[in-house]
Sequence to fold (64 residues):
Amino acid sequence: MLCGLAVVFAGGLLWLMIASRPPVGVSAALAAGFLPFIVPDLLKLLVAAAVMPGLWKITGRAAR
Fold:
């Protein structure tokens, strides 16, 4: 999940840097597209990682 999050953020930052008019630098892209979202996304990742094993047990998919 963390790798997927990194790919999404990397693509978003590149898009902000290239497609913005006028183009912005790395620091502006980080400030607009990374820093406001990284903490909530990491919290969602941790919650999902904590909940999924329990859901697997409930649905019977843990034995596979």
